[in-house]
């Protein structure tokens, strides 16, 4: 009976004592605002309402919170909702809430709440008797708290693992976990951790038969109780008094056990604060009294305890009560009742699949039904062997989980380091490659730019040479024409004028024939004189036109455009402008601007018509080039090399450029260049 009783005690500790942290949060929960969320959370915590109503309010609070932004307050509120579900034993919604807060914490890299979520999941799997999952989650939380150097929560998590190991009868593993918890809070004031650790150690030593150690640690637990840390309603003192009594029961010292049970029952508000503990103390006191052959209050105390446990559906407690009743009636020689209670206890343990309790029931039946003892003993041995094997396997699983968790963590750390190194290596290679590419690209651009500059310089030299050569030729032609004109004017016209004068003097002769001839000669001479004058004037006018060889070069460019490309070209060049007043550099830049613009139109515009106009307005020379092509976004295309060339050449001429274009509406480029010394033909 010893093991069965103590397993029940530790289950009580798991659900009653270790739940303190969650219930403390509820105790300190106050309304800080009148909004709906605070109202729902407060109503969900009102134990005067029915469980259904509290669940409804908690669900409404959850629906509000899950739609809010994932921040620290959101995660705190989700934990508040989870705590309320925990105290309602609503494990399904508790799990959903904790899963959400874990997801939010992971996405926010909130290590504190990630660890807290793992402890909550560990509590959930503990209630569902899924020990491996519970242990894994506690281990995950333990690793994070250790990294955060959060000694208090690290100790609590190790205690959770200790309770879990104890529940699976891994007593040595549980003991080690408790001492690991005590080690991290050494020197710190954490009376609640000390109490739980000492109390569990007392239960463990009682279970393995080290009763002196059990008494020592239960006394330490009693002395560590601090009402400022552990609220009175948790009835810590009554719990320790009950556990102390169980040690003396196992020692068959029922007088001492009875004293501790009675002191436990005397604790204030016990039957209100912890009804299950009250029923346990009542049953244990009745059991010790029956062993002492004391009949006062028996069997009513057993019945009262059983009734309470039935109402609370505490199956392990019900089992113990019925086993105690069976022993009690067996001692009273009431074999029928003794057998009935034993069989009811056995049936309950089979139905709940509590194999430890099954062993207790079989053992009791073997005692009170000796004629069937061999049958019960055979089944007892079979179940006990299977149970011990399962317990060993579970202990090994816990060890394996810890080992694999550590190994995975080491692998993750190693993998993280490898990934980091790979990132550094690839980043370095990428930067080196990019640097090499930039250098090569820049060198290529520089070579291209240098080539263009050299080409441009060569073109300008050729152009200047052409201009100079044409100027020389034109100078010679003009000089020759001027000489010829002077010869015609001064020589021929002079002689012709003398002849005309001589002939005119012959008019004094009144010979009819002579007069007629002379008149004819005079008329012919006048005609020759007029022709010569016209030739002279034409030669001087041709000199003025030929000197403007810039226009001829531009005309050649425009003619080439007409012959080579599809768009219709319309030109308008003011030929009265004194081009000789412009320097060659300005002419070159204007020529290149026209050439660059035509190239851009031919490449990109897809225009049908092009207009080129050169004219003077007041003291400025205007070059306008327009097309009806595709157009472009001026803001986005300002960095193009074509437009940059046009702008830079205009700047060299001390001029201004205006570019108007829109996609689908063609382009107009207007260049204004001042004449040198403000000299314009009027």
TrEMBL record:
EC number(s) recorded for this UniProt protein: 2.7.13.3
Spell out the InterPro entries in the cross-references.
HATPase_C_sf, HATPase_dom, His_kinase_dom, Sensor_HK_TwoCompSys, Sig_transdc_His_kin_sub3_dim/P, TPR-like_helical_dom_sf, TPR_rpt
Which domain of life, per UniProt? Bacteria
Q: Which reaction does it catalyse?
A: ATP + protein L-histidine = ADP + protein N-phospho-L-histidine
Keyword Kinase annotated: yes
Q: Which GO terms describe its molecular function?
A: ATP binding; phosphorelay sensor kinase activity; protein dimerization activity
**Membrane-spanning parts:** 422-439
For this protein, the record's PROSITE patterns field holds: HIS_KIN, PROKAR_LIPOPROTEIN, TPR
State the coiled-coil residue ranges. 518-545
Q: Which CDD domains match?
A: HATPase_UhpB-NarQ-NarX-like (cd16917)
SUPFAM superfamilies under this entry? ATPase domain of HSP90 chaperone/DNA topoisomerase II/histidine kinase, TPR-like
TPR repeat coordinates = 195-228
Keywords (alphabetical) are:
ATP-binding, Coiled coil, Kinase, Membrane, Nucleotide-binding, Phosphoprotein, TPR repeat, Transferase, Transmembrane, Transmembrane helix, Two-component regulatory system
> In what residue span(s) does the Histidine kinase domain sit?
590-677
Please give one Pfam family short name. HATPase_c
One cellular component term from this protein's GO annotations in UniProt: membrane
Q: SMART domains under this entry? A: HATPase_c (SM00387), TPR (SM00028)
The protein here is known as: histidine kinase
């Amino acid at each position: 009976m010893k093991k069965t009783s103590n397993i029940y005690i530790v289950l009580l500790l798991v659900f009653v004592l270790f739940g303190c942290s969650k219930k403390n949060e509820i105790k300190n929960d106050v309304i800080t605002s009148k909004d709906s969320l605070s109202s729902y959370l407060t109503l969900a915590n009102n134990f005067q309402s029915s469980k259904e109503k509290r669940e409804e309010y908690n669900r409404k609070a959850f629906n509000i919170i899950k739609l809010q932004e994932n921040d620290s307050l959101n995660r705190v509120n989700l934990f508040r909702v989870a705590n309320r579900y925990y105290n309602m034993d609503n494990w399904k919604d508790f799990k959903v809430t904790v899963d959400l807060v874990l997801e939010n914490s992971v996405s926010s890299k909130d290590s504190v709440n990630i660890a807290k979520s793992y402890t909550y999941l560990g509590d959930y799997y503990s209630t569902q008797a899924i020990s491996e999952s519970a242990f894994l989650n506690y281990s995950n939380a333990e690793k994070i708290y250790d990294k955060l150097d959060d000694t208090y929560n690290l100790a609590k998590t190790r205690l959770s693992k200790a309770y879990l190991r104890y529940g699976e009868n891994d007593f040595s593993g549980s003991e080690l976990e408790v001492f690991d918890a005590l080690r991290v809070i050494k020197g710190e004031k954490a009376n609640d951790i000390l109490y739980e650790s000492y109390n569990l150690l007392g239960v463990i030593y009682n279970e393995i038969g080290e009763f002196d150690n059990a008494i020592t640690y239960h006394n330490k637990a009693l002395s560590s109780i601090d009402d400022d840390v552990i609220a009175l309603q948790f009835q810590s003192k009554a719990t320790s008094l009950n556990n102390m009594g169980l040690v003396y029961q196992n020692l068959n010292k029922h007088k001492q056990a009875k004293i501790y049970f009675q002191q436990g029952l005397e604790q204030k508000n016990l039957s209100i604060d912890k009804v299950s503990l009250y029923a346990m103390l009542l049953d244990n006191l009745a059991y010790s009294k029956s062993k002492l052959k004391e009949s006062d209050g028996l069997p009513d105390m057993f019945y009262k305890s059983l009734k309470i446990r039935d109402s609370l559906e505490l199956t392990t407690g019900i089992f113990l009560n019925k086993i105690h009743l069976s022993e009690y009636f067996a001692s009273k020689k009431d074999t029928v009742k003794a057998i009935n209670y034993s069989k009811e206890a056995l049936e309950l343990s089979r139905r709940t699949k509590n194999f430890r309790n099954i062993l207790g029931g079989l053992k009791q039946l073997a005692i009170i039904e000796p004629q069937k003892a061999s049958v019960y003993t055979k089944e007892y041995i079979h179940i006990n062997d299977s149970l011990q094997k399962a317990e060993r396997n579970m202990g090994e699983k816990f060890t394996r989980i810890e080992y694999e968790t550590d190994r995975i963590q080491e692998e993750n750390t190693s993998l993280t380091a490898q990934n980091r190194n790979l990132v550094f290596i690839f980043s370095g290679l990428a930067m080196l490659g990019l640097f090499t590419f930039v250098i090569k690209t820049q060198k290529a651009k520089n070579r291209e730019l240098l080539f263009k500059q050299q080409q441009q310089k060569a073109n300008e030299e050729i152009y200047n040479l052409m201009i100079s050569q044409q100027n020389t030729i034109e100078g010679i032609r003009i000089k020759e024409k001027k000489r010829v004109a002077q010869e015609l004017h001064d020589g021929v016209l002079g002689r012709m004028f003398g002849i005309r004068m001589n002939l005119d003097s012959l008019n004094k002769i009144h010979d009819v024939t002579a007069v007629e001839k002379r008149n004819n000669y005079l008329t012919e001479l006048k005609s020759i004189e007029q022709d010569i004058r016209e030739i002279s004037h034409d030669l001087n006018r041709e000199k003025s036109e030929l000197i403007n060889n810039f226009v001829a070069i531009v005309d050649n460019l425009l003619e080439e455009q007409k012959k080579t490309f599809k768009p219709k070209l319309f030109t308008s060049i003011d030929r009265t402008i004194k081009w000789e007043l412009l320097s060659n550099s300005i002419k070159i830049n204007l020529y290149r601007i026209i050439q660059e613009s035509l190239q851009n139109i031919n490449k990109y515009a897809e225009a049908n018509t092009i207009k080129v106009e050169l004219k003077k307005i007041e003291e400025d020379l205007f070059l306008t080039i327009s097309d009806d092509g595709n157009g472009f976004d001026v803001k986005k295309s300002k960095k193009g090399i074509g437009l940059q060339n046009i702008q830079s050449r205009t700047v060299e001429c001390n001029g201004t450029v205006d570019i108007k274009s829109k996609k689908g509406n063609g382009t107009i480029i207007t260049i204004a260049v001042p004449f040198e010394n403000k000299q314009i033909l009027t």
